[in-house]
Design brief:
The structure is a homotetramer. Chain A contains nine helices and no strands. By secondary structure, chain A is an all-alpha fold. Chain A has two domains: 56 residues, Orthogonal Bundle (Arc Repressor Mutant, subunit A), CATH 1.10.10.60; 115 residues, Tetracycline Repressor, domain 2 (Orthogonal Bundle), CATH 1.10.357.10. Chain A starts with 15 loop residues before the first helix and ends with a helix. The structure holds a DNA duplex.
Chain lengths: 192, 192, 192, 192
DNA sequence: GGATAATCGAGACGGTACGTCCGGTCTTCCG
DNA sequence: CGGAAGACCGGACGTACCGTCTCGATTATCC
């Protein structure tokens, strides 16, 4: 227009409450009815946020769920008792608990992946702290410098992901004990 | 009323060509446009088979895709050179090739899981030969009897699945070498 | 596909009951809640027909309503008592009744027009029988051959449409009597 | 809406330029993309006026368009040559030009009607000067006192509205000549 | 060979969710 | 303190896909 007027910088601010309500509703619904029955309409209804607003901030359903899951996960706390083997076991047990928090973790993971590189980045972001934690634990252990710390941690996480997320099998504490001992035992108790 | 008439056994026979055409079309489409853009209608159109016929033989889309994937995978050939470590590496490399055959393996896996227990059984069926192969290879190695053969094989497969399917990372031959050496090295070169 | 199979001409037949139910539901809703509150979803729900089926047979809401209106209108019966003036009056009164059948005829007409040429063709189709009727009535009257029969009929219909549809005014029987007498009176009672 | 106004004393004065810009933008858009594709957002964007400001002055979209149309229409000038028949023809020709100014006049009319009584009042306001003009012209003609002046004028306007707005037909000068002669000819040339 | 059955291609159908669009209201900040 | 900027709710839109359901035509088997 011609006369007077405000420049940019104006405009209503994004409602943080709406953002929070959406993620909360999404997470509740995920728990209650499972991924494939969660609907954008249902999220909108439950959160009291208009569907249009959902799509203003998230490109699609998978993105909302991803965000909700990430938000809902407790921050990863790395145990530090000094006993590397025990810490690793505890950390993996915690990861296991996280991965079984939602019934159909593999469906959720598939949904994330379906968003392409962005989705996989989300997946990496979610799993990265766990890897870092294991690496830190192993870093505190008296291992030879050439020990493949990262790869070991990856194989542990892989074991858990593979059995629990992919195959929905049950991992026992014993399994974790043996798993952690596997690469380290050669170092601790050299032979049989 | 009971005596007369033709009894069962009559009727047109199932067309085996239709079955083959469906799986071929499904696999092509999976390669070309990715899981979530494959539709039953598209499979029907491409294969020249009526949609109704699809549903006569498969309960749903995920089942068709699962079958198509299973069919398309080369039969698992377990190497048997006698060198357990080399065989394990070769076998894992082959698995790696299989898992990267379809761009979005994790989406497919998620889709399978979304079918519930039946889908996970399919997933297990597909992965079981690989596990069995590794177990067989390890069984031929000079390992102490209490060595956790199955768990070791699972951690290997887990490592590959986790990095390649979940995170879409690249696994190098070196990675595989280190991975396989990890649990075994303590046995071969007892101490430092 | 390869072997066996049916040729074209097959396929489930269009369900005539669905077609009928849609138009009935649309007409009911039009009467009950008015054009702009009629919704494709509501039509679908009321008729028990899937929304997708609506869009298979009609391009949009306006087309459905147009069809419903056309269907609901009683066939135009041209009176033929021999008294041209009386017949014309009766015919116009009937038209008037038709046009006030739906509260907001001009909204409906606007909706039809919004479909472009196709919609205007529908409008013409609906009004054409009324014009033809008046022309036929005038054709039976003892008028000089150069009398502008069609134009007269159009001016009569125009009068009714303009006042009743556009302005939502009330037309009295007296109005109609005077209207019809207007162009004819010069012929019947030559001068004043 | 027309005048509206700034209140007493304090505060910034209402910007008349904004008012003008809105109506100009609305009218341009109406010409360019047609009624149903004109949106309040587009009017706001084109005019540089905030949407909120639109709704401060006009109750809804139809009102803005109505105002824009009314503003854009040239003031009705009633011809007064003394020749009633010629004047009537000229006046109707001018009306015809006005009604065809916007492609989809019936859509606009429908939109106005959709506002209920208020909208129809707008419609009447727009058309009233034309009716008054014709009545004035007929009032200057040497007609018998009982001649239905208003009804005649209405039938003329109705003829034009019906054919041009409703059916989007073309009206020729000849049509108008015959139309006007119709009710009057009986008076001028009593019989055949 | 004729009746009986099962299969197939074609495609309409009910249902459900998607992602978009727009009308109209409300909030924030700038000049 | 008026107004531009723009987020927000509500609700309809038109599309896509799933899995079911007729059709009519096409084989096979059995009597």
């Amino acid at each position: 227009m011609a006369a007077g007027g405000a420049r940019s910088g104006a405009g209503r601010k994004r409602d943080p409450e709406a953002h929070r309500a959406v993620l909360a509703a999404a997470e509740e619904l995920l728990n209650e009815i499972g991924y494939h029955r969660v609907t954008m309409d249902r999220i909108a209804e439950r959160s009291g946020v208009a569907k249009m607003t959902l799509y203003r901030w998230w490109p699609n359903k998978a993105a909302v769920i991803t965000d909700a899951v990430r938000e809902s996960l407790a921050p990863v706390a790395v145990p530090g008792t000094g006993d590397a083997v025990g810490d690793a076991r505890a950390h993996l047990a915690a990861l296991l608990g996280t991965l079984t928090r939602y019934g159909d973790a593999s469906v959720v993971a598939g949904a994330m992946s379906s968003r392409g590189e962005a989705g996989r980045a989300d997946l990496r972001d979610i799993l990265a702290p766990w890897l870092d934690g294991l690496v830190a634990i192993l870093g505190r252990a008296p291992l030879p410098p050439e020990f493949p710390v990262v790869l070991t941690a990856q194989s542990w996480i892989g074991y858990v992901v593979y059995r629990v997320v992919f195959l929905q099998e049950v991992i026992t504490p014993d399994d974790l004990r043996i798993l952690v001992d596997l690469p380290v035992q050669g170092l601790r108790e050299p032979a049989f």
